[in-house]
UniProtKB/TrEMBL annotation:
The keyword Disulfide bond does not apply. This is histidine kinase. It is an enzyme of class 2 (transferase). The chain crosses the membrane at residues 6-32, 44-64, 103-120, 140-161, 173-196, 202-223, 235-261, 267-287. Residues 495-697 form the Histidine kinase domain. Its EC number is 2.7.13.3. It catalyses: ATP + protein L-histidine = ADP + protein N-phospho-L-histidine. Keywords: ATP-binding, Kinase, Membrane, Nucleotide-binding, Transferase, Transmembrane, Transmembrane helix. PANTHER family: SENSOR PROTEIN CREC, SENSOR PROTEIN RSTB. InterPro entries: 2C_sensor_his_kinase, GAF, GAF-like_dom_sf, HATPase_C_sf, HATPase_dom, His_kinase_dom, Sig_transdc_His_kin-like_C, XrtA/PrsK. One of its GO terms (molecular function) is ATP binding. One of its GO terms (cellular component) is plasma membrane. It comes from Novosphingobium barchaimii LL02. It comes from the Bacteria.
């Protein structure tokens, strides 16, 4: 009378039942310590989950071994009774079990029908009955199940529909799970009653309903159930929808081809092949089209997502484009245009930036070589509206306003004619930074042009502000670099003026002494020496102009230290307060002119810092592998903070009219000669400047040590 299931459906039924049992048992174990999330119904829910898992196991056993008949029916009755108890406890959680009088009688009636069915089913399993009576018993058993199933669905509907609005969030998922379980049973038992036999193929899928029940209970018990929503990414949605479209297309093409073959006729096969060829060619042309892809994206964004844009992806793409660097990357202006054009899949664009008089001029073009841009792209008078409002201009609207013989707004009249007349010009996006217009991006029309909406405006304003900050920062960097170049130029001029001032002082002193001693042969000889030395210094100054700021020297060579010191003392022969305290014979590795310049500066500074009657001591000694030049005065001295933070800073001076570069230049020249300049000073007591330069005999040692350090590094 009743045919058994095939081997395939037996395997499917056992697999689904075991999967559902595992899911239900797992949720029950997980929920055992979280029963309070269902209030008074927590314990009943855990018991009902365990009984439903046991029923799934019994169903799997009965499917695999048809001799097991009564056990699944017994456990199913226990399952239904447990879920009826859960429903009653859920009603009791908000007090409706007392206010709704029919609830308790309905539950009791359904429980009675379930128990009656269990007793009848048990009695029939113990008796030997012929096939006709067995068919009637089967129909009665199915009717009992239908009564309980329909009653359960009615209770679930009243549980959720009659709940207060604030309680529905907690009841939504349990109601969905029970509705899925009993709705599947309703269809199963209805088919069984109408067919007069058990539909094994449909019954094999009952594990799907139990799995859905387990998932709904888990979501209801989860603390973040409001966040458990399916949120596929736009890329996944677009790809899935594209595959769906392709699948529907292929199915439709095959269906039409089959219909043509069934239609018959002499030319049926020819028509079928012609259709398949044309349809395939159409697919190859239409599906890869950018316009079709754009239409799909717009349609999906409109109907599948709350927002048009995936802001995370848009921002990541924007930062990748605008922040890309390297030799192969586009210039900043073109990257600015591309970063905004990518939002609308625009194929080209322009960047306009302010010129000398504030008007916008062409700064960069991206993939738009054919458009002619005038020297003054947008005059200054047409920028006020964009700067004040940051308005994003849709050029199609401006063209429509002009075509409708409308005078338009005042700002629309200022939109340049070359943009309106060009058919590809589509949109103008102002770049505003701190209420100042730093640029304008003009986009070309994309494949799928559409009207701007509020989401486009919001995204473009944010991106426009960010791009404007990049442009403003780049302008600041360019201005800073230019300022640094001017600063370097002024620094070089200051060094030159400093040296020229020293030479001018020597010439002035020479001219005054010539008026008094020009007739003396000795003075004339000294004057020639002084002029020759001054000429050499001027030539050395010209040679050093390209090196100022780096402290470089012409070349290093063995120099008698005593001779250099003697030249310096000769220069200050007319100043009695300069005293040579000590001198030694030593040959050092240095540059003669640079060393003279350093010592001259140190001695002159010591004289300027001392009283006229206070001596300045100059000495030369040997200190290990170095020659030690020392200039000591008892003048006003300097504070430790000044020595540490200001003495060697260029353009910082304590002397009126001083340039503040002498100490800085002296230290850099000493370093260039592989030496060291040390300073000791105390306010009110005086200062000591010590210049250490390597002896010529020790130069090879220093060179070897330096080479060894480089190899180790």
């Amino acid at each position: 009378m009743i045919a058994g299931p095939s081997a395939v459906w037996t395997t499917i039924g056992v697999a689904f039942d075991l999967t559902g049992a595992i899911a239900l048992a797992s949720v029950a174990i997980w929920l055992a310590t979280r029963r309070d999330r269902f209030g008074r119904a927590g314990t009943a829910v855990v018991i009902a989950l365990f009984l439903t898992a046991l029923w799934s196991l019994a169903s799997a056993a009965a499917t695999a071994s048809p001799a097991v008949v009564f056990a699944p029916s017994l456990v199913e009755s226990a399952r239904n009774l447990a879920w009826l108890l859960v429903i009653y406890r859920l009603f009791a959680s908000d007090g409706r079990h007392a206010t709704l009088a029919p609830i308790r009688p309905v539950i009791f009636a359904l429980a009675f029908v379930e128990i009656l069915h269990l007793a009848v089913d048990y009695g029939l399993s113990r008796l030997a009955i012929d096939s006709d009576v067995l068919r009637v018993a089967f129909d009665f058993n199915v009717m009992f199940r239908l009564l309980v199933t329909v009653g359960g669905l009615v209770l679930v509907h009243n549980l959720y529909a009659g709940a207060p609005r604030e309680s529905r969030a907690a009841l939504r998922w349990p109601a969905v799970g029970l509705a899925a379980l009993w709705a599947f049973d309703l269809n199963l038992y209805t088919i069984a009653y109408l067919a007069g036999s058990w539909p094994y193929e449909i019954a094999a899928l009952r594990g799907i309903a139990t799995g859905a029940l387990a998932a709904c209970i888990a979501i209801a018990a989860a603390g973040n159930r409001d966040d458990l929503r399916l949120r596929p990414s736009r890329a996944v949605t677009f790809q899935t929808f594209s595959l769906l479209v392709i699948g529907v297309y292929l199915v439709g093409m095959v269906a039409v081809a089959q219909w043509l073959s069934y239609a018959g006729g002499n030319f049926a096969r020819l028509i079928e092949l012609a259709f398949l060829t044309l349809a395939s060619a159409l697919a190859l042309v239409v599906l890869p089209s950018r316009r079709v892809r754009g239409w799909l994206k717009v349609t999906l964004a409109k109907h599948f997502f709350q927002h048009r844009y995936d802001y995370r992806e848009e921002w990541l793409r924007f930062t990748r484009t605008i922040g890309s660097g390297g030799e192969e990357s586009l210039p900043l202006g073109e990257r600015v245009v591309q970063s905004i054009a990518d939002v609308f899949e625009s194929p080209a664009g322009l960047l306009l930036t302010p010129g000398d008089q504030g008007e916008l001029t062409l700064a960069a073009r991206w993939n738009w070589a054919e458009i002619e841009v005038p020297s003054v792209a947008i005059p200054l008078r047409g920028l006020g509206h964009f700067e004040r409002t940051g308005y994003i201009c849709d050029l199609d609207e401006v063209r429509g306003s002009a075509a409708g013989d409308s005078s338009g707004s005042e700002w629309e009249n200022d939109v340049p004619r070359w943009l309106i007349d060009h058919p590809r010009a589509w949109a103008m996006i102002p770049l505003v930074h701190y209420e100042r217009l730093v640029g304008m991006v003009v986009l070309a029309r994309p494949q799928l042009a559409r009207k701007f909406d509020w989401e486009d405006f919001d995204l473009l304003r944010v991106i426009g502000q960010q791009v404007a900050s990049y442009l403003a920062e780049n302008s600041s960097q360019v201005a800073l670099a230019e300022s640094a170049r001017f600063d370097d130029f002024h620094r070089r001029i200051a060094f030159v003026m400093h040296d020229i001032k020293n030479l001018a002082s020597q010439f002035s002193l020479l001219a005054r002494n010539a008026e008094l001693h020009a007739e003396k042969p000795a003075f004339r000889a000294d004057m020639l020496v002084t002029l020759r030395n001054s000429s050499d210094k001027l030539n050395a100054l010209l040679a050093r102009l390209s090196r100022y700021g780096s402290g470089g020297v012409d070349k290093l060579e063995p120099v008698p230290a005593g001779e250099v010191l003697a030249v310096v003392m000769e220069r200050f022969r007319g100043t009695p307060q300069v005293v040579l305290a000590e001198t030694r014979v030593a040959v050092i590795t240095a540059n003669r002119h640079s060393l003279e310049q350093v010592l001259m500066h140190l001695v002159q500074n010591a004289i300027d810092a001392s009283r006229p009657d206070s001596p300045v001591f100059v000495s030369l000694s040997i200190d290990g592998l170095n020659a030690r030049f020392e200039v000591l005065d008892s003048g006003s001295g300097m504070s430790a903070d000044f020595v540490r933070n200001r003495l060697f800073k260029p353009f910082v001076s304590t002397k009126t009219g001083g340039f503040g570069i002498g100490a800085f230049e002296a230290r850099e020249l000493v370093r260039a000669m592989r030496g060291r300049l040390d300073v000791e000073s105390r306010e009110g007591l005086g200062s000591r400047f010590v210049v250490r330069l390597p002896l010529a005999a020790a130069s090879d040692i220093y060179q070897t040590l330096a080479s060894h350090d480089q190899k180790v590094a």
